């Protein structure tokens, strides 16, 4: 193996450890977990309140939309931080690329506002 390939060994070890932990936990919980089932144990239960009616009641998608938009615009900060740290090294090319990136984000933000995705009824 070349010296560059040796640097990937810790990543491989961490991956094997993570997969081993997940598989081991699933196997152990299957062997040590509860084995007896009954109608009372299999009954739906949430917060001590008896469930009434169907659980598949439609509700507004606004919650998911706001969460996705939050993640989308929050990822922007992840790209801004390394750019700000290396601002001097990137020079004018980095500045132009960031202007393009920010302008695309602003176009998306104004589109969201125009479509009234953030307005609550």
UniProtKB/TrEMBL annotation:
The chain crosses the membrane at residues 6-28, 63-83, 95-113. One of its GO terms (cellular component) is plasma membrane. It is an enzyme of class 7 (translocase). It is found in: Cell membrane; Membrane. It is a multi-pass membrane protein. One of its GO terms (molecular function) is quinone binding. It catalyses: a quinone + NADH + 5 H(+)(in) = a quinol + NAD(+) + 4 H(+)(out). Keywords: Cell membrane, Membrane, NAD, Quinone, Translocase, Transmembrane, Transmembrane helix, Transport. Its EC number is 7.1.1.-. NDH-1 shuttles electrons from NADH, via FMN and iron-sulfur (Fe-S) centers, to quinones in the respiratory chain. The immediate electron acceptor for the enzyme in this species is believed to be a menaquinone. Couples the redox reaction to proton translocation (for every two electrons transferred, four hydrogen ions are translocated across the cytoplasmic membrane), and thus conserves the redox energy in a proton gradient. Belongs to the complex I subunit 3 family. PANTHER family: NADH-QUINONE OXIDOREDUCTASE SUBUNIT A, NADH-UBIQUINONE OXIDOREDUCTASE CHAIN 3. NDH-1 is composed of 14 different subunits. Subunits NuoA, H, J, K, L, M, N constitute the membrane sector of the complex. This is NADH-quinone oxidoreductase subunit A.
């Amino acid at each position: 193996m070349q010296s560059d390939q040796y640097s990937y060994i810790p990543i491989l070890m961490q991956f094997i450890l993570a997969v081993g932990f997940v598989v081991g936990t699933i196997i152990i919980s299957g062997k040590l977990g509860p084995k007896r089932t009954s109608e009372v144990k299999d009954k739906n239960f949430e917060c001590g309140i008896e469930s009434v009616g169907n659980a598949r009641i439609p509700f507004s998608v606004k919650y998911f939309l706001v969460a996705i938009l939050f993640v989308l615009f929050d990822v922007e900060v992840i790209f801004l931080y390394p750019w700000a740290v290396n601002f001097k090294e990137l020079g004018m090319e980095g500045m132009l690329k960031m202007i393009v990136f920010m302008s695309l984000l602003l176009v998306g933000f104004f589109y969201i506002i125009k479509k009234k995705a953030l307005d609550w009824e």
